Every structure is written in C-alpha cells, then in structure tokens.
Amino acid sequence: MLRPVPVADPAAEIASWWRLVELCLPSHDECGALTFAPSGAETLEADWASWVARTFLPVLHPSLLALQNAAAAQDGVRLIAEDNSFGAALPDDAARRSLTAGRHLLLTFQPPQGARLLERLREAAVTDRETGHLATVFAARGHVFHLPFVQVVGALLLAECVLGADAAGVTLPAGRTIALMQGAMDSMAAAPAVQLLAV
What is the pTM of this model? Predict the structure, then answer.
C-alpha cells in the first residue's frame, strides 16, 4: 500500500528513498563514491553545489532520462549507445568510478527474473569493458521495478550524496541529506513538486 511520507520526519523520508536505492543499486555497500566525490566535510556543500551544476544538471539528469526512456522501450541498442555517450560526457575520474560501480553491479548481481534488457546489457558488458555505467544499470533496474523517473532520479541523487559523503569520511544526518537532495531536485528546470510515496 502506498502512503505519503510526512516531510516533518526526515529519517522516515530518507528510509523510504533508500528502499528505492536498494532496488536499483543492491551493491551500494561496495561502491564508494560514484560521480560525486567531495573533498571533505568542510567543503561538502560547496562540492555538492558544484557537482549539481557541472555534472548532474548538464550530464547525469538528461542522460538518466534518455537511459530510462531506452529501457522503457526495451531498446538495448539505444541503451548501450546512451551508456557510451554518458561515459564520454563525464569527467575522467567520475567516468571511471561510474563504470566500476555499474559493471560490478551488472556482473556480480543476477538481474531480476525476466529482466531481459538487463541480461542483454550484462552480455554487452562481458564483451565490452567500456559498457555498463552505473546510471545505465540504475535506470534499467528502475524500469524493471516500474519506478517513475522522478523516483529514479531522486534515488540516484540520494546514492550519490550518501556514498560520496561516506567516501569522504562524512556521515550526513537525515535533515542535511534531505536539504542537499531537495536543492538538487529544485534545480531541475521542469521538476514537478515531489511527494515521495512509501512503498
């Protein structure tokens, strides 16, 4: 049953979002920083704002939408082409971390039963070491679990934020995490007002 998550309870909101992260990124415990890699606690907010402006808005957000559309169309050729374009658009270090995390998820975890597109993506990753960025696998898994784009992008933002902060030695409290995520969500040009539904 779906129920709205009260905004007054940041811990419950993060827990609800994190369940979506676990669906799309079951290997989160083994990832480390993804494309967001802050310098440390003192610069975390500034590093996040810079990442949102330089990586999330111009590269990750539009690529994630294109990837999820390709997944919805079950178009493996287009999905792999978008994966390659996404990797080429990222800064080198971020592309390396994205590819490492995505390929680990693809090659270590079995796709959900009947997820043919993920199986095809996995086969492509076996033959091409440059295939399998995290956003691609995340979008395809989001489609398998019938998640709307706003939940896929929100879950990926949460994973980027928490895993990046953790890699820098920072444990974010729920309220601070929500504020960082909300700032990024608000920065999306046509983002509708988001109300998370707990599942």
Answer: 0.88
CA torsion 5-18-131-146 (nearest 10°) is -40
Distance separating alpha carbons of residues 65 and 121, to the nearest angstrom: 17
The position carrying tokens 């988001």 is 194
Q: Which residue shows structure tokens 């895993």?
A: 163
Tell me, what CATH number does 139's domain have? 1.10.4190
Total number of domains constituting the chain: 1
pLDDT in tens, 168-196: 999 999 989 998 998 898 888 544 444 44
Helix (H, G, I), strand (E, B) or coil at 161: helix
Domain residues for 148? 3-198
pLDDT tens digits, 52-63:
999 999 999 999
